[in-house]
Amino acid sequence: MKALVYDAPETLVFRDVPEPKAAEQELLIQVQAVGICGSDMHAFLGHDARRPPPIILGHEAAGVVVGGSRDGERVTINPLVACGRCTACLARRENLCPDRQIISMAPREGAFAQFVSMPESNLISVPNTVSIEKAALAEPLAVSWHAARLGIEALHPSMERTAVVIGGGAIGLAAVLALKAMGIPDVVVVEPNPARRSFLEVNCNLTAVAKHSSHASIIVDAVGYAATRETASALALPGGVIVHIGLGQDTGGLDIRRLTLQEITFIGTYTYTAQDFRDTAQALFDGRLGPLDWIEQRPLSNGAAAFADIKFGRVAAPKIVLKP
């Protein structure tokens, strides 16, 4: 089969690789749409030790089952594979499973390929009314759905229902959609890239600003750099909540003194539970997350150019979806 292989930092090669074989209790999926994630970009730049080359990246995928009891079924893929037996899994917190695996991280190859193998329990049927490209957005939407849920659950009932999301990429945009779907009507996006800011305002009908000075109850850092954590520390209301999703930079930025004196809750969030993924997929299918028409589609064979365009800020759309 053909795949886009990460061979070395900033080197992606579209070439032939062996086709995967479905393991026991797994099914083979013909990938029809797969998004480029920020973590794929980190790996591409050589900044992710969890994804050493050579490896096939890509985990935001949807396609059609080939063979088995669900042959021909259109599915979206939950890429997180948990053991199902540990304390975290039994508590339905699969994202904290110590033996968790995610496709695009060794030992599981990713979905920038024509085929991928996944446990049947990780596959969610996609209605015929939903395009396969939109179905591939379930994974990044689930990341933000999980984060929004944790942030709202941690918010004291007395707090006003306002939020600021730092970062207007797919995860930031998805956080806005999730927060609004969960009853937070007043959400502002902070996005320094003028092209992306314009895209969010014109195409997504969102309030997007280059800088923001007003405080809010919930601050979502969808970038994860020292500078954005500094901004989050400054913008959170006393008693508010900072929800941290981004993995851009490991350290720095948090104003620990302010977080302590103003009793601000800081929550690190990672991926999603299996229930979060199911809930997100259903919200997507029901239209509760909007039209989701903010993707740019490109062929997988042109994937290397897409990564370069993202690196140099030449992409206004929050998400590029590749088509094998």
From TrEMBL:
Record-linked Gene3D superfamilies: Medium-chain alcohol dehydrogenases, catalytic domain, NAD(P)-binding Rossmann-like Domain
Cross-referenced InterPro entries: ADH-like_C (IPR013149), ADH-like_N (IPR013154), ER (IPR020843), GroES-like_sf (IPR011032), NAD(P)-bd_dom_sf (IPR036291), Zn_alcohol_dh (IPR050129)
Keywords for this protein: Metal-binding, Oxidoreductase, Zinc
Coiled-coil residue spans: none
GO MF entry, a single one: oxidoreductase activity
Sequence ranges assigned to domain Enoyl reductase (ER) in this UniProt record: 7-322
Name of the protein in its database record: Threonine dehydrogenase-like Zn-dependent dehydrogenase
Organism: Shimia abyssi
Lineage: Bacteria, Pseudomonadati, Pseudomonadota, Alphaproteobacteria, Rhodobacterales
